Amino acid sequence: MALDKETLREAVKAAFKKAKETPPPDPPDEGVIKQLQETILTDLAQDLADALDAFVRGADVTGVQVEVRNNASVVIGSGTQNNLGQVQ
Length: 88
Fold this sequence. Notes:
Elements: H1 5-20, H2 30-57, E1 60-61, E2 64-69, E3 75-81, E4 85-86
Antiparallel strand pairs: 1-4, 2-3
Helix pairs in contact: 1-2
């Protein structure tokens, strides 16, 4: 299947929405606020990484051609993969 931009877009949007809607601490305390901000950034980075990982791994791969070369850069083998595969 082709790369799914719509699913990626929705996952990124959800990650930012989750970060935006994190409630502030009550009562406000500077130490707690800094810790909460760091947690929000860490969670946002993880959510974005998960979305991008799913986006890349969701694509089918086909038509991969390879050459095997020895230390002198002489081709000693080749191959082509024609069936569908997944990025792992």
